[in-house]
Amino acid sequence: MTQSNLYVSSPVNALVQGILREEITLSHILKKGDFGLGTFNDLDGEMVLLDGIFYQLRSDGTALVASTNTQSPYACVTHFKPTHISEYSHSASFAKLQAYLHDLLLSQNLIYAMKITGRFSSLRARSVPKQEAYRPLVEVAHDQVEFNFEHVSGTLVGFWTPDFMHSVTVPGFHLHFLTDNRLHGGHLLDCQIEQGRIELQPIDQLVLDLPHSIQYLNASLDGDTMQALNKAEH
Questions:
Q1: Which pLDDT value is given to residue 31?
Q2: Among 88, 171, 218, 230, which is most buried by a count of CB atoms within 10 Å?
Q3: Using CA atoms, how far apart are residues 82 and 112, in angstroms rounded to an integer?
Q4: CA 2 to each of CA 53, 81, 161, 207: distance values in angstroms, whole numbers, following the listed order
């Protein structure tokens, strides 16, 4: 059986501590996968990687194609090859959708890539404006801009990750949204789905890069940042 990898460009704990700049380019990340999410240097918007194209989801809710020369402090990507596909054909809250997705997981000790393409009667998302200075992620979260979409079609891109991996990547469901026309999107906060197509891929291996920037090498990453991460991401 062919194994699948999740590539993480830097431990999420570094981002939580405020290390918002690294020298890893999107062209390097693209070699590791064609599907995923993350952010850009200085937290200049949310990232979606879909079908091998990077999208930058800006703080006004708009999206644009990002240059592969752009740098990122944190990204999670994989080569997306779903092993489970199902149709979700009734209206449900995000909480009910998550419960349905949980039932599809083979084990909660694995990582899963997930793609949900569908129609949403409502969807609430956010992004963060570009940061000019070193700030912990939980402080940056106060600057996030939220926006609401009504009767919108698009794709949710992201992962489900076990809690025990919270120092490496965001635990639980971590999803970014991109509209069908690829012009708007953001980090998913809540939604009411009407119907959708769910594609899941269990992931067997984790590949983690450890940066060598001065900020990263001198950072103290031993603390438990679970609470700060949950507050910033959810």
A1: 97
A2: 171
A3: 10
A4: 24, 10, 20, 16
User: Residue 47: beta bridge partners?
Assistant: 38, 56
Distance CA 224, CA 16 (A): 10
Q: What pLDDT shows up at residue 108?
A: 93
The CATH number of the structural domain formed by 5-233 is 3.30.1330.80
Q: Is 89 left (phi over 0), alpha (psi -120 to 50) or beta?
A: alpha
Would you say residue 225 has pLDDT above 70? Answer: no
Dihedral over alpha carbons 190, 194, 160, 126 (to 10 degrees): -30
| Under 8 Å between Cβ of 146 and 189 | yes
Half-sphere exposure of 7 (CA within 13 A, CB side): 19
Would you state the pLDDT for residue 7? 98
Side by side, which strands form the sheet with 205-208?
63-65, 53-57, 46-50, 35-39, 74-78, 5-8, 205-208
What is the distance between the alpha carbons of residues 63 and 129, in angstroms, rounded to a whole number? 13
Q: Which residues of 217-231 are buried (b: 16+ CB within 10 A; e: fewer)?
A: eebeeeeebeebbee
Alpha carbon distance 150, 165 (integer Å): 34
How far is 173 from 234, CA to CA, in rounded Å?
A: 9
Residue ranges of domains in the chain: 5-233
Q: pTM to 2 decimals?
A: 0.94
